[in-house]
UniProtKB/TrEMBL annotation:
Enzyme class, first EC level, given as a word: hydrolase
Spans through the membrane: 329-350, 356-381
Membrane topology classification: Multi-pass membrane protein
MF-aspect GO terms: metal ion binding; sphingomyelin phosphodiesterase activity
Name by which UniProt lists this protein: sphingomyelin phosphodiesterase
Gene that encodes the chain: Smpd2
Amino acid sequence: MEGEPTLRLRIFDLNCWAIRYLSRRRQERVRLIGDTLRQDGFDLVLLQEVWSEQDYSELKVKLASCYPFSHYFRSGVIGSGLCVFSKFPILDTLLYQYSLNGYPYMLQHGDWFCGKSVGLPGSRAGVTAPLLSPSLQLHAEYCRDKDAYLPHRLVQAWELAQFIRHTSKAADVVLLGGDLNMHPEDVGIRLLRGWTGLRDAFAEAMHFEGCKNGCTLVPDNCFTNNSELLPFPLGIRIDYILYKAISSFTVKCEELKTTTGRAPGRDIPFSDHEAVMATLHIQRQGQPAGATLGTSDPALADVVTEARTEVAAGLRAARRQRYSTGRMAVLALLLLLLQAAAALGTLAGLGTEQPFPKLSFCLLAFLALGVLVLATGLHLFHTMEVKKLHGTEDQMGMVLRALQERP
């Protein structure tokens, strides 16, 4: 019957912080997560930072009876860390890896090696039409005052928004959960929500229970690095469940919860992040309600303009890096050519009055060759970075003109 409830959907989202050899008490926490999910009976589970496929396999075996459908998304060098467990059949999957993922030489951060991505499982929930439920993670912030990764994260947010807009046309309901590594008022979140029409479960929830302001990185968590919270003593909210209805359905957030530090009956929490749990109420309506943007056109135009300005700043920085590495490569090449000329001169019998320093010559040649290879590689990387940032800036400019021309 028109207007009757069709589905009550319970969703669990968690950044598991399960890095092999590095995360504290990883195996114990993964077992705890599996035990909790098996007992609580959620309909859909979205997990991030499950870096070990062995951990995923153990969870899959443990949860097989209550979550018969699951998928692990593989990408990058060490994997995306994304996986999904579902009570509903997963009809197909799609993984999109962002075009910019940080820098390969920033080994201490490692975002480039995991290939940050959005994993999209398509399913059919009960009597509803197709359901898209992406699980994702964006590039970490690391330093808010001097955020060198902000342009990359904005490119990722823009590509995520475009990905959702283009893949959701065949769905009736879109759910998105994950660690966005952005605060609620950051330009990236406002861009994502404004351009896709996604609604924030925390802001829309009729009932909330958990950490104050829905924070998911809190000082009460024993695994939290408190240096990350210095400007925010009460914690920060960077993990989200977002949703929207596309056609003849409406979605309302009945309840939202977060964990609050230690897991029930245990001396440790699930992760350094708090879990986010939402109960959504999905109803069928009489007439299709076409997809809408999340904000008015003038407000969205302001957000796109702000994001484009940050991307342009990143583009200028990338061009400077490209120029510096290119100049370094040219200098290393010139040094190699001078050494080659000196070696040829010696072989031809020139300058025989002085002994030829073979060891020093070889060491200098290897050093110049190493600098040449490294600088060339970085020059190519920053050239690709320039192209991606420039392309995103052009796309945003096109959208901005379209928004400004609307009556």
